[in-house]
Every structure is written in structure tokens, then in C-alpha cells.
Automatic annotation (TrEMBL):
It comes from Pseudomonas syringae pv. ribicola. Keywords: Magnesium, Metal-binding, Molybdenum, Molybdenum cofactor biosynthesis, Transferase. It catalyses: adenylyl-molybdopterin + molybdate = Mo-molybdopterin + AMP + H(+). This is Molybdopterin molybdenumtransferase. InterPro entries: MoaB/Mog-like_dom_sf, MoaB/Mog_dom, MoCF_biosynth_CS, MoeA-like, MoeA_linker/N, MoeA_linker/N_sf. One of its GO terms (molecular function) is metal ion binding. Catalyzes the insertion of molybdate into adenylated molybdopterin with the concomitant release of AMP. Its cofactor is Mg(2+). Belongs to the MoeA family.
Length: 220
């Protein structure tokens, strides 16, 4: 039977489909047999010292099945990256609420949280932040235990764009503006040691800059 050990003295195996039992003593095969036919020797797939799952490998169903086939009940892993998603703008409200004059639905939050979960990140939903410098600083300070702060809005040249100001005052602003469109007013820096990526608030710009830049940063 498939997977059974080879009896002592045997050097090949014939598939049952190709064998015809004539009587209690005789069996006829429909093909000629060769030594080692249908036999997998020990170590054919993996030998002692082989690298099976290299460090940094993303563990999916195939990788977990491979580990289980080697008898591994546990493997050492790196914890999931914790990413805070922060939306900024007085005009934002969450989907499901009545839309008032001058308001828009916060579609970026849904986009980013869903995408981050697909990337196996641990998502911290930091909600909607009003256009206020003091509250921007306070919100960033409260997220000191995450690995990355991902914000949308508040990164352009408007009077209500406070993310860059907060980074300059209590951290460092390393990048502001890229030569791409959509997505020009992207911001990158650190707030009290925590990396911050400020994506533009325009949904198309959010999509482009996350797909091209923020996603690559998370997967590096």
C-alpha cells in the first residue's frame, strides 16, 4: 500500500492497478519492473542539514504543511507588525452615518485596514482626528507602542495640515513630497522614535502611495 515500508529483500514495488491475482500463489504483472521502481528512499526529499524554511519565510498553508510533515509542532516566528491607522480631517465621518453638508465618508480607513490585515499586520484603529495641532501631537504620542503609524490627510500645504508640523516639533521629518501624481504630498518621518508614513487624503492618492511605497516598507 502507498506509504508502507518495503518488505525486507524487496527492491521494487508494483502498483496494485497493474497486478492481476491469478490464484493464492500467483500474481501477474502487466508491465516489467525495474529496481527501485515506486520506492522512495529515506532522505529523498529532505536530508539532515537541509534548509527547509529559510528565516523570513512567510508562513502560509503550504509552508505550515511542510513543517508538519517534518514533525514540527512549533516554529519560531516574528510577531506581526503593529500598524496604527489614523485618519485626519474635520470633514470625515464613518460609513453608515448620515452625510452632512461638507462631509465625506472615511473610505481610506476601510481600504487601509483591510489591506493591512491581508498583509498579516496587527491593525490598531486610531479613529478620526480633527484638524488640530495639539490633538495631532497627542494622538501620535498615544501610539508609542506600535511599529508604524499610517495616517491619511494632513500632509499637504493647507492651514489644517498638521502632521508635518508635529513631526518637526517632536521628531524628524525625513521626506515630504514626491514627484508622482497622484500621491505627491507624501510624508515620512519619526515621532518620538516611531516611524510615521503620512499618505495624502485623496482616496486615489492613498491607494497609489500605499500600493507603491507603504506596502513595500512593511514587507522589507
Amino acid at each position: 500500500f502507498t506509504g508502507a515500508p518495503v518488505p525486507e529483500g524487496a527492491d521494487c514495488v508494483e502498483m496494485q492497478e497493474n497486478a492481476e491475482v491469478l490464484d493464492d500463489q500467483r500474481v501477474r504483472f502487466t508491465e516489467s519492473l525495474k529496481p527501485e521502481q515506486n520506492i522512495r528512499p529515506q532522505g529523498q526529499e529532505t536530508r539532515i542539514g537541509d534548509t527547509v524554511l529559510a528565516a523570513g519565510t512567510r508562513l502560509g498553508p503550504i509552508e505550515l504543511g511542510l513543517a508538519a510533515s517534518l514533525g514540527l509542532a512549533e516554529v519560531d516566528v516574528v510577531r506581526r507588525v503593529r500598524v496604527a491607522v489614523l485618519s485626519t480631517g474635520d470633514e470625515l465621518i464613518e460609513p453608515g452615518q448620515p452625510l452632512g453638508p461638507g462631509q465625506i465618508y472615511n473610505s481610506n480607513r476601510v481600504l487601509l485596514c483591510s489591506w493591512l490585515k491581508r498583509l498579516q499586520c496587527e491593525v490598531v484603529d486610531a479613529g478620526i482626528l480633527p484638524d488640530d495641532l495639539a490633538q495631532t501631537r497627542a494622538a501620535l504620542a498615544s501610539l508609542h507602542e506600535v511599529d508604524l503609524i499610517l495616517s491619511t490627510g494632513g500632509v499637504s500645504v493647507g492651514e489644517a495640515d498638521f502632521l508635518g508640523h508635529a513631526l518637526r516639533e517632536e521628531g524628524e521629518l525625513l521626506l515630504w513630497k514626491l514627484a508622482i501624481k497622484p500621491g505627491k504630498p507624501l510624508t515620512f518621518g519619526h515621532f518620538r522614535g516611531v516611524p510615521v508614513i503620512g499618505l495624502p487624503g485623496n482616496p486615489a492618492s492613498t491607494l497609489v502611495t500605499f500600493a507603491l511605497l507603504a506596502r513595500a516598507y512593511l514587507l522589507r
